Amino acid sequence: MIRFNCDYSEGAHERILRKLAETNLEQTPGYGEDIYCQEAGDIIRKLCKKEDAAVHFLVGGTQANQTVIAAALRPHQGVVAAVSGHINVHETGAIEATGHKILALPSEDGKVRAEQVEELYTAHAKDESFEHTVQPKLVYISNPTELGTIYTRGELEALQAVCRKHKLYLFVDGARLGYGLAAEGNDVDLPVLSSSCDVFYIGGTKVGALFGEAVVITNKELMTDFRYHIKQRGGMLAKGRLLGLQFIELLRDGLYFELGAHGDRLAGRIRAACEKKGYPLLVYNTTNQVFPIMPDSVLKQWKGKYSYTHQGRVDEGHTAIRLCTSWITREEHVDALVRDILNS
Amino acid sequence: MIRFNCDYSEGAHERILRKLAETNLEQTPGYGEDIYCQEAGDIIRKLCKKEDAAVHFLVGGTQANQTVIAAALRPHQGVVAAVSGHINVHETGAIEATGHKILALPSEDGKVRAEQVEELYTAHAKDESFEHTVQPKLVYISNPTELGTIYTRGELEALQAVCRKHKLYLFVDGARLGYGLAAEGNDVDLPVLSSSCDVFYIGGTKVGALFGEAVVITNKELMTDFRYHIKQRGGMLAKGRLLGLQFIELLRDGLYFELGAHGDRLAGRIRAACEKKGYPLLVYNTTNQVFPIMPDSVLKQWKGKYSYTHQGRVDEGHTAIRLCTSWITREEHVDALVRDILNS
Amino acid sequence: MIRFNCDYSEGAHERILRKLAETNLEQTPGYGEDIYCQEAGDIIRKLCKKEDAAVHFLVGGTQANQTVIAAALRPHQGVVAAVSGHINVHETGAIEATGHKILALPSEDGKVRAEQVEELYTAHAKDESFEHTVQPKLVYISNPTELGTIYTRGELEALQAVCRKHKLYLFVDGARLGYGLAAEGNDVDLPVLSSSCDVFYIGGTKVGALFGEAVVITNKELMTDFRYHIKQRGGMLAKGRLLGLQFIELLRDGLYFELGAHGDRLAGRIRAACEKKGYPLLVYNTTNQVFPIMPDSVLKQWKGKYSYTHQGRVDEGHTAIRLCTSWITREEHVDALVRDILNS
Amino acid sequence: MIRFNCDYSEGAHERILRKLAETNLEQTPGYGEDIYCQEAGDIIRKLCKKEDAAVHFLVGGTQANQTVIAAALRPHQGVVAAVSGHINVHETGAIEATGHKILALPSEDGKVRAEQVEELYTAHAKDESFEHTVQPKLVYISNPTELGTIYTRGELEALQAVCRKHKLYLFVDGARLGYGLAAEGNDVDLPVLSSSCDVFYIGGTKVGALFGEAVVITNKELMTDFRYHIKQRGGMLAKGRLLGLQFIELLRDGLYFELGAHGDRLAGRIRAACEKKGYPLLVYNTTNQVFPIMPDSVLKQWKGKYSYTHQGRVDEGHTAIRLCTSWITREEHVDALVRDILNS
């Protein structure tokens, strides 16, 4: 079986394993207070051109989302997100478990628009019984989104503008950031991201690390006591250096961006095959996720050969699926899939 | 600087790193549904002689404690623990963050006694205004405790008896279990542990793994939907096999117990040196933590040479400290420390 | 100004005030353990024909919703509700504050349909990554709904059937129950309600009491330790008898149903006037809330004369509003309003 | 049976009932936005000599404690309180249910001392692993305490000083404030209280109201969005004017203080009888609670005649109990009790 169901089927880039082995018997302080976390943080601050950003390393995405959001909000405040946002659908209510409502906005392509935030904020502010409704305070977006689409610089800046205007925080979930930054048509880079949002993270788990998300906080209000929150939410790794070491390897010389580009290129080949064959896409994007609408007869043939994610029934004979490439997807696996698409 | 401040200063046992490298490019399902987690679970069930136990792998101890406790309790129920229990003092209120009160019991040696539980339960049950107080429902103990002491089989069985009598759950935090099971004077093994409590975990982080705690649930009531809870609390590792692989290596041929014995033996050498020199122990135990009461003058000399944990001021000139050995502590480091103790 | 903006603008029915005065200096046990709460509970059990129902009295609706839901669910479970449900829009995230997600279903008329519940449940159960999503466990409906519509006996029984089939709880918020039971076209009564849901409440605040909601639990699973939950959520009134006394007066001889009928009849007059005048209704119902779509020019004239609730802009020149009658609305106030509608 | 078990066995002062009746059919806005709440707030601001204080009315004490504390703290922060504090023992974990740990301090007489706060704060600040422990942020005291003792002005000011020094909030639970302010030896008044703490409440439930606590916030940081918190915690009474009306009656001409003095004077008679008879007091105070240590033989005789609260077994033949007087305790009931004490 060849796995195209997600981007975390394998371990880590070999350089990461090597680095872990090399440093294995060194003694360091625990809980992220070691020299490697320090160094990784410095690399990130430099890449982001934000010398005063706070950088924290967490093991996974749900943890990062939960910790950032719970740290940012007071009890009566809620998170604005796309209805398809990861926190709204795939985290078993982790945000609600910290006490906060997700104010879900409709979205066809996984993105939240500045106008939607403006409208939602204004509706709350003007409501006669505003104190009876949750106060919007933080806007959560992912880049790329759950549907693989990416925000343009203009879109990010528009979101930033509406957030600043209404004193909302803007938080970018970058679990697949590497695939976004390397994508065709992307005009966002780390400095743009850093200066347009209050907090974001650089996802490692899906882009070459064993695990790990680097949370970058640029808004001073959100920096205070952040390590307490990490500990309280169960996210403070005893051997924290494992996180620092991985991000050093990923980011010291551009490996992270190469890995992202690899995944995007191979997804592009699959996408092109689908288009050539005439299989429509549920949503178009240029990152590592492809969402073709497939005849059920073809999917039947793929059983046991390829794994993919079920995205939804479209009609009697068709199903939308997700095919995911990754930093380590093999060219020959894509060759095989492309062949099978074209010959189907 | 030689670190004796904790048992997680280094990476992992070399066999673990090797195993991770060997399997690195295999594709497996995520979130702990891979063959390695399955295999590790089977090994654990066999070692515990509990074929129907549920085994789940979590990254760290706070996460494990939080997830087990929140999954077990209804909102008005609380956790009984020693006042020195890890959940009561070193987890930044992680349990309270899930909504539950910790009902703390006094303890000199870190242990909870069956009689204390009986008394607390009865006081609640007899209270005229019992509905105005938190209902005790789960007893949390660690073995070894925060003070390195271990429970005897008799003590565990007495706790089990009182818990069964009053329908309380018994939960054993085994973050340092390897050091407990290998300790001089210990009469508990995995089958005893499995049959005397409702849920416990085998700690990997402090006994040779990069990270990881294997939660073993023996009470069917606690098994239902447990994976939802793991996900909600941010503890479901995407590349879950990393946990399975580590526990396979630690447990397939007794490595875990050897590593525990190594730490205990070296701690024993330090303890003996303290006793020989006449430095009293805050609490006596036979595991990998030593708690001598040291003259401040000696500690001053150690500055920059050895790291340790501050345990508390005892009097004007003396301080109780904690010296920790581990699965990888080097004999020559202990030689040096013993020499410095004896010559101090 | 004549208030039609809500159904809690006045105090209580005079019989209630008289009863409070008569019993004022009696000494009774606190926290709802007095003879009046006992008597009120007995009356309710009899009216519901459920001898083994548990009855508890809470001060208000948000409290009742929060307490029932938090008591019923485990952490990973969520509440199914109409998107317009009171808990989803008008309680400042009170449910999320107890840790639970609201799984909102689209609804034109404020009702949840059995088929929607079936579909939602099945989608969750069939989801490949079901453990990553919130588990539906309780269905929350209001009768009458937020839009004043009422459930038929058939609809309730269909909801009950799907809930039983999937082991979901059915919870009916009856904040305006009096207006529902007295409504034209209603075929539900207390025994029907009691036997078709697991828990519901009889709202006093909006139907003649100073305050108070009588929670009736018919499912034994939900009865356990319920008083602990009331206390924990801040809902245990010290002088609990105030609640018992009010429900005795409302329910001992049918006053509650008369008060409901009064409100419904007067709302009917307003509704008829709107229809006669040609003002369309946002949603049609037969209870005490009327939702006409009004010309802004008319609303301008009403300023300072009548208060109402803003329901939403419909187009450039029209606004949907809510006009509420109540148990104590004066005939002459309705006369005036009807006149102004017809002459507008 | 004559009830001395608590101070909320009866209804309300007759003036309150009269006021409710007089205003019963007036129409007012709901949720505390009526003229009576406004007027009551003005009276309180004047009595406190704090023109810019925010005043909110809540139904009960647990609700008030929970709402204030949850509104004031971020997730990793905890409440400092006496181990005997109401929030620590008699609210079914209501504070923990909002996610916060109570940092309990030992106390013989129910009071928290400034030195204890200083010590606790410093211990946290100096702890090597401070981020692994809950951050103290709010000091909760009651005046009178659970044991009926009262704070002197000096004690309050010392607490204020340590709180200001370390940026902690000082919160005074005044559920029995009326009995404290009227007590012999008391040197605190509303202006002193207002200027020495950040938030406190004037308890109505136990001092002549049907129910109600007036929360007075003097620190601007705590004022923001407070009404959202009230709503979220289920504490926003629909007919909020019921609260305003009661506090107007209690406070417009000193009735509240007279009622407190009445309770204190009668408790004094009981206390004197105990002392005369030689029954020792568990703790001495001058407010409305008396804590004699009684021979079990006497308590046996009282069965069915007097109700009291069990406070704890003292030795084989003696039990500490609590006898409570109130704003409405009858002289002849105290006559009887005093007689029975002296003749026992």
Automatic annotation (TrEMBL), chains A, B, C, D:
GO biological process: amino acid metabolic process
Protein's name according to its UniProt entry: Aminotransferase class I/II-fold pyridoxal phosphate-dependent enzyme
Required cofactor names: pyridoxal 5'-phosphate
Gene3D superfamilies membership: Aspartate Aminotransferase, domain 1 (3.90.1150.10), Type I PLP-dependent aspartate aminotransferase-like (Major domain) (3.40.640.10)
Source species: Clostridium porci
UniProtKB keywords: Aminotransferase, Pyridoxal phosphate, Transferase
Keyword Cell inner membrane among record annotations: no
Record PANTHER family: L-THREONINE ALDOLASE-RELATED, LOW SPECIFICITY L-THREONINE ALDOLASE
